[in-house]
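In this supplementary section we document a worked example of the pipeline. Step one takes a protein sequence of length 248 as its only input; no multiple sequence alignment statistics are reported here. Step two produces a three-dimensional model, which step three serialises into C-alpha cells for compact storage. The input and output of this example are shown verbatim.
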Amino acid sequence: MKEHYFVIGDIHGQITMLEQLLQKWNREKQQLVFVGDLGDRGENPKACFERARQLVLEEGAICLRGNHEEMLLNFMNHPEQYIENYAMNGGLVTINSFIDEEIEGKKPKELAEKLQQQAPWLKPFIESLPLKVEWGNYLIVHAGVDLTIKDWKETSNQNLVWIREGFYDQPNNTGKTIIFGHTVTAMLNEKQSDASIWLSGDGKIGIDGGAVYGGSLHGIVIDQSGMIEQYSIPNTGYAFNNLLRKES
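The serialised model returned by step three reads:
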C-alpha cells in the first residue's frame, strides 16, 4: 500500500490541464484517485476518459463515478428518456468527442448506439467505477454523504454522486475527513470569485475548482496525518465565471 494519496478534482474534459497536473504525481509513492466527472463540457472529454481508464488499468488508479458518469450511463441505457437532461448538462460535447461524424439531427437511440460502437469499453468502464473509497481517516467521494441521517454509511447511492445541501452545510461528525468534488468551491468559499480548495474546518475538503469554467483543476496529496501538498492548474483561457447558479 502506498503511503500517500494524490486526489484530483472534477476534470470535465480539460485534458491539457489534467496532463499538467499529472506531472506533479509521484506514481511510486502516491495512490492516484479521481473524484469523477471526467467529461461533459471542456476541451476533449474522450481524451479524459481514455487517460483515466489507462491509469486505472496500468497504474492501479482509482476513479470514482460522478454524477456526469451517471448521466452518461443513463443516456446509454435509455437514450430517449435521458437525452434532454444529458444534453442540458454538457453531454453533447462528450458524445461529439467520441463520434467521428456529424451528430446534429441524429436520433438519441442512434447516438447511443454509435457511441457504444465507437467506444465499446466506455459503458463497462463506467459501470465498474466505485462510488467511494475509504482510506484510514479519509473518505473520498464524488458529491458527499448524507449528514442529516444517523449513520452516514446509509447514504443512498444517488446522494453519493448528487448531494449538495445535507452535506456541505451540515456538521461532519463521521470521524473522517471527507474529500469531495461536485460542488464548485466558488459556491462554498466566502467570495464567489474564489476557486481555491475549500476547507470547512470540520473535516470537509472540496476540490472541484471549476476547471472548465475558468477556475482551477485541483490536486491534493494526503497521508494519514493530513494534507501535505496541494496543486492547482489554472484555466488561463478565460476569466472565471461567477457561479451564483447551481451547476450539475
